[in-house]
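Lab notes, practical 5.
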Amino acid sequence: PAPCGRIAHQIRSVLSTVHGRACSPGGSSPRARSSLPKARRGSPSEAFSNSRMPTAGVSLMSPASLFATVARRSTRHASSTVASLTTRARGYAPARPGLSQLAGRLAAPRAVSTVTAEIEPPEEEVAFQRGPASVHAVEGPLAVLSGVGADVPPGTLVRLGDAVQGFILSHREPKTFALMYAAGQGAGGAPSVGAGSGVAVSPGDAVEVLKNLHFRMPSDDDLRGRWIGALGQPMDGGDAPSGGDRDLACGEDLDGAIIRDPPGVEDRKPITTPLVTGIKALDVLTPLGRGQCMLLTGEPGTGLTRLGIGAVAAQAGSGVRCVYGATGAAAEDGGKGAMEELRAAGAMGHTTVVSVDGDASLAERYAATCAAFAVAEGARAKGEDVLLVLDDFTGLVEFTKDMARLSPQLDNPEGIIDEEKMVEYEGMIINALLAERRRFLGTTLQRVARMSDALGGGSLTLLGIMYHEKGAYKGRKGSNKDTGAVGSAEGADGTLQLPAGFDQMAPEMQAKITAALEKKRDAAMKAVEAREAEAAAKRPEDAYTQPRSLVEEFMSITDGQVMVENFSESNGWGISVKDSVSRIGTPGAAGPLKSLDMMQLRLDVMQADDMQAFGNNGDEKVQMRNRSSAIRGVLRQRPGETAALSAQTVGLFALQKGYLKNMNADEAAARVNEAVTKAKDTIPEVMDALDANPSKALSAENSDLLASLFAA
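Output from the prediction step:
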């Protein structure tokens, strides 16, 4: 028992040291705490998903490697001391070394006497190398490198062979992945993806890693209203942003760097300011705060691209800067369709579209994802509030699979990826690939933040789109109404839209009305099925769906999700109340809506649907059904329509003050539209004040003026 206890203590100590945690089971030292990755503020879920996410470049240890490390514990101390002194002398702060790297150092430790020689800083641009770095393989514009080392930050520039340039995308030990580009060979003299004409890169070519130089995107001022590619090259036929001879490298300040570490805790401040999306169901049921990361998910055909474009269009005149990243289904036409929709909506003046061609590689799609973040961060650094709509997460997700395929771990048989390999990760024994992917995803999504006043006070808000497989969320317990979808046409799920007072009618009249409504419903559903069949034959998002397990992994990392259940051109999006949630909650909600107890609507819809499915007939059931129907009518919204905060306030005021009692969806929608039109004519100053001050609560004076809209 005593030797076993000592071994267990050594195992815990090694794991704690490598992950930057406490060096003893009972506490954490100041040095260990200082090395922890910076945590994000926001949702409770981030205590696991974000705040404890290891930094980029950390590998994972097998049980055999773990015990080998314990056996060599005394050697580790001397080797790590050498590495620490070397790091400080070179003047940079690399990510913590991976465990497989650490094991290699333990096997062949350097003598302490070599410290003096290593302290001398390098004189050339080449740095960080652990032996001869070389090209291992080439796949399209992606170069797989050997011998670079995981402590070289992603985004760092490299030279491949004699003349080809590139920058590091990521690491998966023992390999490194770089995207090659040709400077000056793109449109307008901008860089182009790939090695370029007249040159080639082959396995075995030498690689130089350029010290403290990172790939830079064009400046924010040159990107407003532009449509660009993953490297900042123009795709709208215009001149190259920032000029064809712009400097592609940035130094240690990382100004404009395409990939950078997320902000630390001390660099952030809490999310307390709303970002009004102009989508009623989102703003009322799942409010979005400035600096929040929100997932939009639904089956193919649920109009997620249209929803994201609508949110961007709603920012016109609000002062919110927008970036639209078309990297998945929206890039099938190179992003042209999304750009044209934004231009038609008058939204390009405050927007940058970042996209790739439909046949782009996964590496380029991932680079475009990082480029969209970099453009948004450039505006945020100037103190602006930025909305980034990422359509979709394909590049981020699929590139992790590409890395696993191209760089199997050393302790696996050649060419075989053991998907069931289990490792220790954050105190748990879980699947190795899952742990690696979660770290990779979380590090990227942590770039979303609201910055402290000392750093300008800007914010980056993310609406990220992910399509899940058809039927992935069907067949859950309860009836078809169990998810509480709102916003779409009532009856879209097969229910009947009964008129007010139906239960008090004579049985003969009820039968006639029911028969007429069933006939109307059946015809409508057949028309919907025909439209869906036509759309399914040509919708590109079918090729970009993700399994339910991955969708729910994103749900656990982000600050909330919006589940879109159905979509139609005439009635817009049907959003599931039970499956949609904002983990920031009311701090990110608009002030006038909070004043009207907006969150009560979620409970009302869910209670009404449960009562409809399981409750007994009676007055309470009728009242709850009418209430749910009125809510659906108020939140209904056609694609292309932008709901101003003032209009949403009028609708919610009518609901909460009882002015829509006993009305069905159509009647409630008509009554609210009439009141909004009247408000614009009679109290325009109140409507303008509501739109101009989204954080301000609804005053008693304005409440009285809104009540006058519904006076008989």
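Observations recorded by the TA: Residues 17-129, 477-482 have pLDDT under 50 and may be disordered. The CA atoms of residues 90 and 121 lie 5 Å apart.
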